[in-house]
Every structure is written in structure tokens, then in C-alpha cells.
Amino acid sequence: MKSIIKMMTVVIMLTTAITEVSAQGFLKKMTKAITDTTPKTETLTPENSEENAKRDSILKTPLKFEVKKVIEFNAEGDTIKNEDGTVKVSYRVVDENDKIYDPAVVQQMVNVRLKAYGKILAKVGGGAALGAVKGLLSKNKKEALTGAAVGAAAGLAFSAKDIKEIRGINKDLKQLKTVLEAYQTTFTEEGLPKMADADLSNVNGIDFTQCTETTKLMAEVQSDLEESKNMDIPSLDDLSL
């Protein structure tokens, strides 16, 4: 009887040991599988950090331009007038600081940015990423994938919040592009109507008569224009999207 009990004890001990070994092996395999399939977070080197900061500063910064009525004055402070004695008013493309830009330059800036946005938004045009963004925009937390998961789903270096910002800016830029196109067909390089009888209250649905008015030193107007024409507008094709 004692020998039977000893034999059963040995069998139980061996079975337990084998089970533990198998379990450990299984756990190791599972751990390896999870490690292999989990997206690896790239270590941000100083170069990568700089590149990411550059990308974000460009793509997540709105282009704030509008058309304003500009009344110019000379160094003596006298308002510039037309030959008939009326105050000369020109329509200019300005930024948020009333700095005047050549409209063709602003158009190029807008086109470059829209091209980059197009690449980003095209990647979230379907599948999990699109559903995540729609959920985020509709504030439906159950449908929204948040954080970097959205970007990862589309193979992008952007989070759901980033993509939401980009969608908003992209919409604003398309509206700005429409205004610029109407402006360029209506006004000369000097910001004057190409047609004396042009109806500025309705140029493809845009009412230029409602533009805000500002004053500017005549020399400064020319200086701003020349500076904008000499701007370096880099291509965004090399940015990590």
C-alpha cells in the first residue's frame, strides 16, 4: 500500500512539473506573439523630433488671409487720391497683421498645403480610420477611435485630434482658394477693378463691397508686395505624413 502511495505521489509531481513547463512555454510563445504583432513605437531622436515639430507647425497652422479695402497715404500723411479728387481705394490680400501679399503667392501657398492635406485625408477615406474620424467629429465616443490609433489605422503619423484639425483647416483653405480665384479674375495687380462697371457685390457669390477697410503707408504697400514675391515656399512632399 505504501509503495502504491509513493508511486502515485511521484506521478502527480511529474504531471505537475510537465504542466508547469508547458504553461511556461505557452506563455513565452504568447508573449513573443504579442510583442511581434504590437506596433513598435519609434524612438524619437532629436532629428525625428525636429521633423515632427516642423510638420506640425506647418500643417496645423491655419493660413489666415482675407481681402481688405486699403486706403494709402504718403510720408506726409496725406491720403492718396484719384485724378478726380476722390480717395483712392484698392483691394488687397492681407494676413492677420494687415501685411499685404501678392495674391499669386498666397494662391501657391494654399495649393501646396491643400496638396499635402489631400494626401492625408485620402488615407482616411475608408475603413477603420474613416469610421474613427467620423465618430470623433460626431462626438460619439463609442464609434471614435482616439489617440494615435486613428493615424496608425491609416498608416499616418497623426492622431485623431490632428486629423480633425487638418479637416477643419482644409475646409477653410478651400474657401480661401475660392475667394482668391474670384479676386484674381476681378482685380488688377494694383488691387483695382479690371472693369469699371464690375459688380463687386456679387463675384461668384462673394461680396467684396463688405470687405473691412484699413490704411497703409504707400511705401509699405510696395515693400510688403516685393517681400511676398521673394518668399521661399518649400514643397511639403518630403514631410513625414
Automatic annotation (TrEMBL):
User: Which first-to-last residue range defines the signal peptide?
Assistant: 1-23
Q: Superkingdom, according to UniProt?
A: Bacteria
Give the source species. Phocaeicola faecium
- In Swiss-Prot or TrEMBL terms, this protein is called Glycine zipper family protein
**Keyword field:** Signal
